[in-house]
Design brief:
Blueprint: E1 2-3, H1 4-10, H2 16-24, E2 28-30, E3 33-34, E4 41-42, E5 49-51, E6 54-55, E7 63-68, H3 90-93, E8 98-100, E9 108-114, H4 117-124, E10 132-138, H5 144-152, E11 166-171, E12 174-179, H6 186-193, E13 198-206, E14 209-210, E15 219-222
Parallel strand pairs: 9-13
Antiparallel strand pairs: 1-4, 2-3, 2-5, 5-6, 7-9, 7-15, 8-9, 10-12, 10-13, 11-12, 13-14
Helix pairs in contact: 1-2
């Protein structure tokens, strides 16, 4: 059970101070009855709350998938660049969703967002083996030796050791790469370590999720079980 003003504040409706005035002005209903006091307590998981007749979404765990375009940085705030948060609808920003992992500025593709810290940790932890698959266009063409090097676990030029990964050549200058960790610019650096500079990179799949028909810049809500 939580105070009504706290429930509404956590849902991103307004500040606690403003909410007290809104409740006392009769603008809030709970289960069809006009609320009288901000101190009234309700079960936030079952109470049906409206403000000015608009139903308020409860702050429950949510998982979103964005088809990220190039040119956006994976950050909640940046003084110089546009961020991926600009692409997230306001109704979800109010639920305090954050990016799960990151895609660099020029990389396109599947990027997840959630307000559930435990879920984010499960997706990102290498121990959970949530595989992420990328399509890359690059200089050169991957060889059998490159495939074996990825599978054995690459050591990058700065000494960073990567876990076993999957490299699948799909044509001249084209490959799919699957990794279960998320080191800084990892896929680009892995490819560069084998002499294949990446020219274009797109994440196509993460765990059990794929972009499917989601348009570039589009957002959809998915079930946490699908990951």
């Amino acid at each position: 059970m939580q105070r009504l003003d706290k429930i509404l504040s956590e849902a991103g409706v307004a500040s606690r101070k403003d909410l007290r005035g809104m409740i006392r002005a009769g603008r809030v209903t709970v289960n069809g009855v006009t609320a009288k006091s901000p101190e009234e307590k309700y079960d936030e998981t079952t109470a049906e709350i409206t403000v000015d007749g608009v139903s308020i979404r409860k702050k429950t765990a949510v998982l979103l998938m964005l088809h990220k375009p190039a040119g956006f940085v994976t950050s909640t705030d940046d003084p110089r660049d546009r961020t991926v948060m600009e692409l997230i609808p306001e109704e979800y920003r109010k639920l305090d969703v954050k990016p799960v992992g990151r895609l660099d500025k020029e990389t396109e593709g599947l990027l997840l967002f959630t307000n559930d810290g435990d879920l984010a940790h499960s997706i990102l932890s290498p121990k959970k083996e949530v595989w992420k698959t990328y399509y890359a266009r690059h200089e050169g063409t991957a060889t059998d030796a490159d495939v074996e090097a990825f599978a054995s676990g690459l050591q990058l030029r700065d000494g960073t050791v990567c876990l076993s990964a999957k490299l699948e050549p799909v044509g001249p200058g084209e490959s799919r790469i699957s990794v279960c960790e998320g080191k800084y610019h990892q896929v680009r650096r892995m490819m560069a370590s084998r002499g294949m500079t990446v020219l274009y990179l797109k994440r196509e799949r993460e765990g059990g999720l794929s972009l499917g028909e989601l348009a570039l810049g589009g957002v959809c809500e998915v079930s946490p079980e699908q990951i």
